[in-house]
Amino acid sequence: MTAADPAQRLQRPDSISTFGAKKVAEQWIETALELEGDLLRARKALHEFGIADVEERVRRLESLDTAIATAATELETLRAQISQAQVDLVTVRQSAEMQELGLYDFEHPAETSAQLADELARLRSEIKALNKPGSAISATSNFTFNNSKAQGDKMVRDYSRLMLRAYNAEAENCVKTVKAGNLHTAQARLDKAVEQIAKTGKMLDIHVVGRFHRLRLRELELAARHLQRLNEEREAERERKAQLREERRVQDEIRKEQERLQKERTHYLNSIAALEAKGDLDAAARLQADLADVDRAIADVDYRAANIRAGYVYVISNLGAFGPDMVKIGMTRRLEPMDRIRELSDASVPFHFDVHALFFSNDAVGIEAMLHQTFAAQRVNKVNLRREFFHVRPDDVLATLRTHDVEVIEFTSEHRAEEFRTSWPDHTKASATAR
Length: 435
Hints:
Elements (H helix, E strand, L loop, with lengths): L5 H4 L11 H29 L1 H50 L16 H14 L6 E2 L10 H29 L5 H18 L6 E2 L1 H69 L2 H26 L4 E7 L1 H4 L4 E6 L4 H8 L9 E8 L2 H11 L14 E2 L3 H10 L14 H6 L1 H10 L1
Antiparallel strand pairs: 1-2, 3-4, 3-5, 4-6
Helix pairs in contact: 2-3, 4-7, 5-6, 5-7, 6-7, 7-8
C-alpha cells in the first residue's frame, strides 16, 4: 500500500459517529505510528543527506575535482617525460652507435667561433648521417667465408666497422692536433689514413668513401681557420699594445724635452735679466741669441707633439740575420730615432741592424705608407702588416724615394754588418768571392 500524504492521512472527518469513534481513533493511532516511522526515516535521511552535510559534501566534491585535475596534469607530465625519455633513448642509442664507429662529440676548436659555429654544426650533422658502413666506408658485397655467404657478409661488416672506427679516430686526432699554419700537414696525415685503409682492406675492397673523407677534411679546415684567426687576433693585440707603448714613450720623451727646454728658457731669461740689471747689455744680447735657439727648439717639439704625421723614416737591414736582400722600412716619432733602432736590435736578432737611411719628414706616415705600398708584393709577412720586412735591396728603396721626389740627405747601400763580419769572417770572404 502506498503511503498517502501525511496531511491527507491526518485529515479530520466531517463528522464522527459515536459507534465509529473507536475505529477512527484506532486509525489515527495507526496513522500516527506510520508518521512517527516516517519521521524517523526522514531524520535518518537528513542525517545522511541533510542540509548540514551538503556543504561538506560539496567541499569533498570540489576537493576530489581538484585532485582529479592535479592527477590529470601529473599524468600529462609523466606522458611528456616518457616521450622525452623515449627520444633520449633513441639519441643515446644513436650516440652509442656513433661511438662504436669511432665518432665522438669531442670539443672542436671552431665551436666557439661566431663565424664558423653554424657551418660546423651543419657539417657535423652531415658527418653523423653518413657515419655507417655503406655510406662512410665501402666494401665488397660478394665475399664468402667457409663457403658461407652469411659468414662472409658478417666478416665484411665487422672489418668495415673496424676500419671506419680507425679512420674516425685518426680524423679526430688530426682536428685536435692541428695548429694555425700546419693545415696541409694535418690533411696529408688524414689522406695517408685513407690510403692505409684501402691498402689493408684491399682483399675485401674496403675503402673510405670520397664524400665522407671530404667532409672530414672540411671539418679539419674549419679548425685550422679558427685557430689561424685566433692567432692573428692575438698577434694584432700584441702589436696594438706595442704601438701604444711606443706612443707612450714618444709622449714621455716629448714631455721631458718640453720640461727641459722650459727650464733652460727660464734660466736664460733670469740670466738676461740679471745682466741687464748690471748694465752688461752685450752679454745679455749674446744670451738673447741662445734664448732664440731655445724658443725654436720649443716650437719644434711642440710641432712634433701636435703633428702626429711628422717623424723619422728609417730603412734598416740585418745581413747576418736575413741576408742582403731584405730590409725593414718603418717610421718613428721619437725625438731621438736611434733609440728606436737600438730597441729593434735587441736579443730577438743575433746582430745589430745597419741603418741605410734615417731622415725627418713632416709626413713620415705618408712616406712610409708609399714605400709599403710600392713593395707590397715583396712583403715577407702578408698577414701581420706590422711586420715591416720586405724582400728588396736598399738600392731599390733609394730609387723609389727619388722617383717620388722625397728629399733624402744621406743614404748608404752598404751593409756594414760589423758584428756579423767579425763573427763569421770566413763566411764573409766566401760571399765576396762568389760575387
